[in-house]
Structures are given as C-alpha cells and as structure tokens.
Amino acid sequence: MTAWAAMPVGAEAERLTRALVEGVSGESFEVRWLHQGDSIQLEVIERGHDYGPPLDAADWGVSFSGNSRVRWARLDLPGGGGVPEEEAWTEPTPSPGWLGFLADASDLLAGTLDPGMVPAIIAQIVVPRLASWCAVYTADQGTGPLRLDYLWHADEAQSDALRARLTDVVLPSADGPAVLNIDGTQALGFPLTARGRRLGVMCLGRRDRFPDESLQLAEDLARRAALALDNARLYAQQAAANRALQRSLLPPEEPRTPGLDSYVIYEPAGETNEVGGDFYDLFPIGDGVWRFAIGDVCGTGPSAAAVTGLARHTIRLLAREGYGVAAVVGRLNQAILEEGERARFLTLLHGEITIAADGLDMRLVSAGHPEALRLRPSGVVDVVGSPQSLLGVFPEAEFEADSIHLEPGDVLLGVTDGVTERRQGSRLLDDESGLAKLLAECVDLSARAVAERIRRAVQDFAPEPSADDLAILVLRAPVEPL
C-alpha cells in the first residue's frame, strides 16, 4: 500500500489489527493493509472459523479462498465521503491527460526567468488540480532560513487563517515527501532541490486524501519547479552582474554641460543577457572645454566589454593629461592592438568642443565610425569629419583631427550602427541617406528633442525589437547663452 495514506489513521489501524490478530485460532497467519480509495482495509488471512465484528470498524467481513479464511475490517480516511459536493475531489484521469498537465506546467515554469514569479506560478499550477492550497517556501538568495514566499488557496477567504496556521509549521528536512502537522487538512511537503542544492519547500494541502497519482505528479512537479527556480536565479544573478558591468562602462552620471545643449541616449539591445559593445562619454577637461566620444566595439559579452572599458578609460585619462584628439585616438589604437588575441575592432567618433563667442569650435576624428552629420537652421544637412581607419586593425594607422565650427542653432549628430543599420527586410534605415533626411526634419528642436525623434524613428522603422545596441549623441550650439 501507499504508506503515507495510512498516516492519518495509523493508531486506529494498529488497534484494529491487534483486535483481528487476537481472534486468530491457528499459529500461521498473514496481515495486510490495503489502500482502497477513501479507506484502508485491514486483513488477517488464516485458517479457522467465523467470528463476530471487530470493535467499531466502519465495515467488516469474512471471505474464503480455497482453504483460507480472510477476516477484514475497513477504516474510512479523514474526509473520505464527508467532503461537501462542491469541494469533492475528482480522481485524476490516467495519462495522457496528466502528461499534458505536466507538459503545460513545464511550459509555464520555463516561460519566466524572474525568480520572484516562479513561486506564484508553482502555486497557481497546483491549485486546484492537485490540492486545495499551496504554500511555497524559499530562502533569500538561495541560502539562510526558509520563509513563506507565496500562498495560494482555492478559497481566498481562508487564506489569512491558513497563513496564520503556517507561521509555526515545521518544514521537512528529508529529501522526499513528508507529512506536515497542520490542523484540519492533510498536508504534504515536497523539497525543491535542483543540482544538489535545496532551494525551498512546496507544501500542498487538502481536506480529503491525496490520490496516489496526485502524489506522483506532485513529486514530478516539485523537481521541475526546483529546476525552473534555480535557472531563474542563475539567470538573474548573471543579468545583475552584466548590468553592473554595463554601468561601469558608461559615465557615472548624466553629463552636465553648462553653455552647451547636449543629450545622449543609450539602449542595449532587446532583453538579452549580454553586455553591449556600444559606449559614449561626455566630460569637461577645462573651463568651457569638453571632450566627447561615441564608439562601438565589435561583438558583445565580456570580451567586448573589456575593450569598451579600455577605450572609455583610456580616452578620459589621455584627454585630461592634455593629449590632443588625434593623439588620443592613435594611442588608443596601439592599446587595443597590445591586447593581442583579446583585441576587438572598434569604431570611434572622438572630439573636443570649445565654446566660442559665435558658436562651438570642434576638433573631430571619425575612426571607421558612421558619419557624423551637421544640421543647419536652414534644414541643410552635411557630413562632417573625414573617414579614417577603424581601431584595432592597423598598427601603422595615423590619425588627423578635422576642424569644425557650429554656428548658433547648428546641430551635430553622432550615432552607432544600431541606428544606421536598423533593418526592415533587406532595407536599412540609412539607405538613400535615410538618417540625413530624418535629421533635416529636426530644425529648431533642442538636443533632447532631436535625440528622441531619432530614437522613435529607429523603433518605428521595423516591428521587431532591435538586435543591436543603440547610442545617440546630439550636440547643439545654443542660439542664446544657456
């Protein structure tokens, strides 16, 4: 028989068994306990004569098989036959129905990588198919004492009372299912164990007994739920580490540029768990003088992040040491090449801005980067900066800075290829000077408004999410002093 089913009536079953054994007339007999739906049948098989009813059994009898006599008594399990019709349990149907249930449960559990959502999904899968209520206990960060993470009851009016009863419940420490001591319900605890680590406990309860099939299903579901919870936690830890790494590769705070109208937008691609290769920077190096950079490292992930960090910090350090724009780019090229096998190609737009009485003076190097565009107040858009070699390829590459002047109201736009190469089928956003046409529509807009207009156009260009990082840098020579 299923041993756990007899636990609620174990003492009474033993008493009746002793009574049956006391009536044995011979020396040889056999005792059996049989799990029969909503009851436990106790049998003593012997050779002998008839006898009267054993104590106060719900049902009893004598049957014969060949020269053997079987005396039996039956005990009703708690809740068996006494559950109101509206709460009565419907026996699980055999497979393939339950196999479909497990398949659907697996899909739901695999559909989230948020560890905070997994306990809620577990409980709502279980109730009411397998149990009247479900409580999921987990530990913070997978370690420490277990706490009640999520509770779901088929009857919401009973949730508060159940929560109070669960406050002092002793959770099982065994590797397998365990019976819990909770008044008024039959409750079982299933450990949530994945990859050799115990992550929590799934507790199920109901007023009537648990059918054999539901116990097996609950054990299977607990294994799948534990694996889903562990996967979600591992993903969340990796995502948190990547976010921290990504933040370290960007300026610590939004750039403040008094006397200069500027705005930057940075968006990593989609919802992937990779560190992007795009970066930007805008920082002062003197009174009324700033440096800016916007770049794109080939690839994503830790290898690209290493080159991104090298580039951003090298640019800042050399610029503040007094190196000119071209010298900074040349030395960065050598630093990337010295990385050897870890080196990645890098495109870069690096410049210096000086506030002048009649606008902004700039020194600019475009190293393999998408063209920088200038918008005049008249709506004319032209390319600024001559294209030069990308970084990390040619050790002999030399760089020269172009001098550019922005009149009041002029706008300089720098983007990464997440903008210019936004794809819709076989067509790119920048085909037929598409980006220049977008910029021409931004006359008289602030730097922020220009950046937001470009971002919205990128999003609207294709229905699917972008597969590339995006960075937009807009500098505008103010018409009047800010």
TrEMBL record:
Superkingdom assignment: Bacteria
GO molecular function, one term: phosphatase activity
Domain PPM-type phosphatase: 260-477
Family annotation (InterPro entries): Bact_Sigma-Reg (IPR052016), GAF (IPR003018), GAF-like_dom_sf (IPR029016), PPM-type-like_dom_sf (IPR036457), PPM-type_phosphatase-like_dom (IPR001932)
Pfam family of the protein (one): GAF
Signal peptide range in chain numbering: none
Alphabetical UniProt keywords: Hydrolase
Database matches in SMART domains: PP2C_SIG (SM00331)
SUPFAM superfamilies listed in its UniProt record: GAF domain-like, PP2C-like
The organism of origin for this protein: Herbidospora galbida
Protein's recorded name: GAF domain-containing protein
Keyword Hydrolase among record annotations: yes
Lineage of producing organism: Bacteria, Bacillati, Actinomycetota, Actinomycetes, Streptosporangiales
